[in-house]
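Hi support team,

I've been running sequence recovery on a batch of backbones for a student project. Most finish fine, but this one hangs at about 90% for roughly twenty minutes before it completes. I'm not sure whether the input is malformed or the queue is just slow. I've pasted the structure tokens below so you can try to reproduce it. Let me know if you need the job ID as well.

Thanks,
M.K.
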């Protein structure tokens, strides 16, 4: 078996990966908080889409790719299949979006959260192994069954807790603390799955050229895309009215309606002539 290294660049890659996971989780929870105050089904749908990009695209998939930058195998050249890599990102966003849809439409309850958590967790674990399947090298890859099962369990538990957070948390400090916890869970799932992997290199005489893109070649386009997504999410969250804004607006609307009603009543009374008292003749 070849030597497998998960921290080739020290703590840089896991540190950045954890930071991306926290940021994506934070933005996703803020989006779901806006989702709960949405007044129409269309608004709720778009907030679910944005939350799916934040959680699935940034907190999970971008974290996965960044962590993979620190992965190396002694004596092997690693490349990535671009279509499979892109498909893994799409899977992450879609399964998270469907999980949010399960708990976000209708009255949230424990049953919905559990069903959504199982579906999303299994989907996220599938995304992880699909992303690893996109990796190409001259060798045979094997997985430890127990660690694979552990990574799936972690993914399901993390997804269930995350979905519960999306339907319950409203206070900023609590959301921030939840994002830190979610970051730990996502990174724990990833590195547990990576620990399950072992590689047996092919004989030098059988080794050929490895096709695909290197992680360095993918870093710039993926980094630009992630920055654009984060920027769009920050703008959308900042531009959208908060629950307090909506309540203040509703209060002002009620005050204005009361003033208009009072003015209309006053004007109506002013146009009606009051009856005069009857005075007999000769008096």
């Amino acid at each position: 078996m070849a030597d497998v290294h998960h921290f080739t660049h020290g703590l840089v890659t896991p540190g950045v990966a954890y930071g991306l996971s926290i940021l994506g989780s934070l933005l996703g929870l803020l989006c779901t908080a806006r989702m709960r105050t949405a007044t129409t089904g269309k608004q709720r749908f778009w907030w679910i889409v944005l939350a799916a990009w934040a959680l699935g695209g940034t907190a999970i998939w971008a974290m996965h790719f960044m962590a993979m930058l620190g992965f190396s195998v002694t004596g092997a050249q690693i490349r990535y299949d671009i279509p499979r890599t892109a498909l893994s990102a799409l899977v992450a966003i879609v399964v998270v979006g469907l999980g949010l849809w399960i708990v976000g439409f209708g009255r949230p309850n424990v049953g919905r959260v559990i069903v959504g958590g199982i579906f999303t967790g299994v989907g996220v674990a599938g995304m992880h192994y699909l992303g690893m399947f996109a990796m190409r090298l001259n060798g045979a890859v094997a997985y430890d069954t127990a660690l694979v099962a552990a990574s799936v369990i972690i993914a399901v538990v993390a997804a269930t807790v995350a979905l519960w957070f999306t339907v319950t948390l409203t206070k900023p400090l609590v959301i921030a603390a939840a994002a830190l916890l979610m970051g730990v869970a996502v990174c724990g799932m990833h590195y547990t799955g990576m620990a399950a992997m072992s590689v047996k290199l092919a004989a030098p005489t059988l080794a050929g050229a490895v096709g695909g893109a290197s992680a360095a070649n993918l870093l710039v386009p993926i980094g630009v895309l992630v920055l654009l997504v984060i920027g769009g999410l920050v703008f959308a969250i900042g531009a959208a009215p908060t629950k307090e804004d909506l309540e203040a607006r509703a209060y002002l609307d009620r005050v204005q309606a009361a003033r208009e009603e009072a003015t209309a009543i006053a004007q109506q009374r002013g146009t009606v002539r009051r009856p005069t008292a009857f005075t007999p003749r000769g008096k």
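--
Follow-up from support: It reproduced on our side and the slowdown came from queue contention, not your input. The mean pLDDT is 84. No action needed from you.
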